[in-house]
Amino acid sequence: MLKKFLAGFSAFLLVLLPMGGMVQAATLTNPIANPSAATAVSGAPTGWTQSSWTSVAGAITPTFQYVTNDGHNDSSSMKLTMANYDTTYVAGADDGQVGGALTGDDGDAKWIFDPINVTTGTTSAAAPLKVGNQYRFSMWYKTNTIPKVVVDYMDASGTESFYGMSNPQPSSDSATVWNQYTNTFSIPQGATKVTVFMFLDHNGWIQTDDYSISDYTPTGFTEPMVSLTFDDGQEDNVTNALPLLNSYGFKTTHCFETQTLINEPAQVAANVKAFQNAGHEICSHTITHPMLSQINDTQLTKELTQSKSFLENATGVPVTDFASPYGDYNAHVNDAIKAAGYASHRTVDEGFNSKDNFDAYRLRVQNISNTTSAAQVNAWVKQAQADKTWLILVYHRVVDTSAAGQAKAGYEAPGPFDTSVDLFTGQLAAIKASGIKVATMHDALAEVESQINPTTPPADTTAPVVSNVTVTGTTSNSTTISWTTDEASTATINYGTTASYGQSVAVTTSGTTHSVTLTGLTASTNYQYQIVAKDAANNSNSASTGSFGTLAVVPPADTTGPVISGNQATPTSNSVTINWSTDELATGQVFISTQSGVFGQTPAASITTATQSSSLNIGGLAPSTTYYYQIVSTDAAGNKTTKNGTDLKFTTTAVITVPGVAGDVNGDKVIDALDLSIVLGNWNKTGATSAQGDLNGDGTVDALDLSTVLGNWSK
């Protein structure tokens, strides 16, 4: 018959935990008195007690020290050193060396803060903790070993119950660097006081400081779950547990040590396959059920890997979950469990699994003992439902304690962690009535991890595809390149005047539609470019290439009309010459009118050849008349400037009547060589007077005036 292995492992005689209740709304002030041991009397911290025990007086030597020159946040702390603690690990001696235990000295030592009062009603300074509520415990420590942590509950009669928290996992430099330990606990029904302590049950030292207790509310999953697990592969469970599990439709997880199966091959079919064929999960529990922290690495690897392969060969399916014997493990053991290919490690550390504390290789449980009631299981389930956490129950052997069961050959009374059929039936009924989801370790783990680590899609190894490349808006110094990709990506645009490029610009915004404008380009130049697209998985495409040419430099558009200056009007009796200048080449028009500001649509004269110095002569005017004029200059871009106003005017001269004989320019009453000389001397002169040879008063000395002189010669 398969055996149950509990010998001598007192650290795991754990209390039954919480009976429900809501987390109080008010923020809890640290209820631990003198939490950093800052206050002392006669060299001892107030509110703290030195405690140790051993079954043999003087067998162990604990030394307690109040440290005044080294603390976590100040200079004070407490130190405990254990010496002369002699133990030997002895492997099991029955059924092919199954089991194992530490023999030799027993006992432990610890610093304990004064117990804190607990209430069932409203909390107060005198009783700050409440039954059913959850709390977080924290402390700082240094050590050269692996200590243990326990919550100690006291009821009204002074009876103590102990809740074993998970062991600390000190860092490699924990002898010199402060480490934090933190864990959660709940206060069960019946508790009136509580304290928490770190203790040593082997040689080494610990130094502790800055203790605290605070409110705790777990971060739940999408739904609560419960998993029922059974350790050691007890054959009684085939008869006493399997039919009940099947009747409730619960699928559970059964963890086998394989040495007994090797010694008794018939148990494979009668036990392992019986549960597997009914839809239950098979889990590994080592070969020989040793204390894993006490064996060497070769033995550790063998215990983990060969038990796994044996069960996989027996069942034909992968065995992915593991439960450590006695709940004995440390960081090194956990590393070996992972290396052996297990997806999880179920401990016997008590608690609930939530998002904020989830560790697949330190799964927390509630341990079922021979006194665990249906009400207690119901309370655990209600707590899991309230917080949406994952509850794992640890069973061992289910025993038929009826008269008929006790009469069977080989009957063995329930041990401390066994369960009677009657208790088991009530527990299953409570679980069924609650409606909570019941799942195997494997299935629950898959659901939980899907929420903590959502399924990662297959690795992306395909580069983005670049298409629809266009080059638009090219100027003398810029251009815009646009493209699309078949998946979200960033890009680098390499460009230059050769295939070596030499310049680049990054597109850091991920998307499928892209556009980048290249600036600072040289005019009238051919450029080559390359688009290198990269997706979120760092896959890059084989570059898409192309070319473009920049335009020649185009001067800015001329939108300014010519500036007109130096305008001047020189009139005669029947004509006027108007001169003006512009600051750029321009054509011109002159409009005249006898009314200020009123000009027709037709110019009086025009200059059609662009020039900066303009002169127009306008004839046919009336003598002694005031005229207003308007100048319009137009440049090559069609910009016009109009200049007019009351100051742009002139008055034609009066008609001059020449005295004496027509042609007598100098007035000497004789038309002779002197008159001819004056006419020829002022030939083609505009604006001339009669005395200068303009005999007909048209403002110009010309052939008409010469004809007058010659026609009347010597007269």
Write the layout of secondary structure elements.
Elements: E1 40-41, E2 44-45, E3 48-53, E4 61-67, E5 77-83, E6 87-94, E7 98-104, E8 108-113, E9 116-119, E10 129-130, E11 134-143, E12 148-154, E13 160-164, E14 179-186, E15 193-200, E16 204-215, E17 225-231, H1 236-240, H2 242-248, E18 253-256, H3 259-263, H4 266-277, E19 281-284, H5 297-315, E20 321-323, H6 331-339, E21 344-350, E22 363-367, H7 374-387, E23 390-395, E24 398-399, H8 403-406, E25 419-420, H9 421-434, E26 437-438, H10 441-452, E27 466-472, E28 479-496, E29 503-518, E30 526-535, E31 544-549, E32 564-571, E33 575-593, E34 605-619, E35 626-634, E36 640-643, E37 649-651, H11 673-681, H12 703-711
Helix pairs in contact: 7-9, 11-12
CATH class category of the largest domain: Alpha Beta
What's the CATH architecture of the largest domain?
A: Alpha-Beta Barrel
**Percent helix among the residues?**
10-25%
CATH superfamily of the largest domain: Glycoside hydrolase/deacetylase
CATH domain fold name of the largest domain: TIM Barrel
Gap between N and C termini, in Å?
172 Å
| Mean pLDDT rating | 89
Task: Flag low-confidence runs.
Answer: 1-25
Rg calc: 55 Å
Strand-pairing-aware structural class = alpha+beta
Largest sheet: 8 strands, parallel
| Beta-strand share of residues | 35-45%
